[in-house]
């Protein structure tokens, strides 16, 4: 069994070294075969240089660089396709979740209790989440439950583990943050058993998703995906 760790990056130079080191430390203790895949989305900082330094030290690291900004959805879709493991685990680059839970997630899947494990900040012990993030998130969850019959509470979770065989049948078309609901909708349609696992979460003020900047476009993209899905 091989584990593929996929991490999309954008303006992640400040923390990508720590993210890599924290994940590697945890997985090395588990004694499993694994690979790292990073895909950088052409941010203006020196993330690429940081990633190249990491790859020089670690032959398990594979790097992919976009020629221009493509969006989170494109990055995830390509990372899922390029992953060579039997199980894929996706992390946000800022690593807001406790990586010590990786063995618990993997055990759930190895024991065939789930096909997908989602780290849920809404079911676990969480750090401070501002109301201007919490309330819209709950509204978005209810909207997706009605539109797509998806019951995943933490739609935008930055810690998700998936059996690769389900990803092989999925092509993600949303280019940006609506990719999360598209992923869970298509996994549900494939018959994947999705389990949300309570997990400690630390709110990051500098995360990639900005409510005022990305919220309206995410709603628009979600409606566009809903319309496409009804006509497939």
TrEMBL record:
TM stretches of this protein: none
SUPFAM superfamilies: Nucleotide-diphospho-sugar transferases (SSF53448)
Ranges in coiled-coil conformation: none
CDD domains, alphabetized: DPM_DPG-synthase_like (cd04179)
Domain Glycosyltransferase 2-like, first and last residues per copy: 4-169
Stated name of the protein: Glycosyltransferase 2-like domain-containing protein
Species the sequence originates in: Candidatus Iainarchaeum sp
């Amino acid at each position: 069994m091989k584990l593929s760790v996929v991490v999309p990056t954008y303006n992640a130079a400040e923390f990508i070294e720590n993210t890599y080191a924290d994940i590697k430390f945890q997985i090395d203790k588990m004694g499993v075969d694994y690979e790292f895949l990073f895909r950088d989305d052409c941010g203006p900082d020196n993330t690429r240089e940081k990633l190249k330094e990491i790859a020089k030290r670690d032959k398990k690291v594979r790097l992919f660089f976009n020629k221009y900004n493509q969006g989170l959805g494109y990055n995830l879709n390509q990372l899922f396709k390029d992953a060579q493991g039997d199980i894929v685990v996706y992390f946000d680059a800022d690593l807001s979740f406790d990586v010590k839970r990786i063995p618990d997630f993997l055990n759930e899947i190895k024991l065939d209790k789930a096909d997908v494990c989602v780290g849920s900040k809404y079911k676990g012990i969480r750090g401070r989440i501002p109301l201007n993030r919490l309330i819209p998130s709950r509204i978005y969850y209810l909207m997706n439950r009605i539109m797509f019959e998806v019951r995943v509470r933490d739609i935008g979770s930055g810690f998700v583990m998936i059996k690769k065989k389900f990803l092989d049948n999925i092509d993600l078309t949303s280019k940006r943050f609506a990719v999360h609901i598209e992923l869970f909708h298509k996994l549900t349609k494939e018959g994947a058993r999705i389990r949300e696992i309570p997990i400690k979460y630390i709110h990051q003020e500098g995360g990639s998703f900005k409510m005022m900047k990305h919220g309206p476009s995410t709603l628009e993209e979600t409606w566009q995906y809903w319309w496409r899905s009804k006509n497939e």
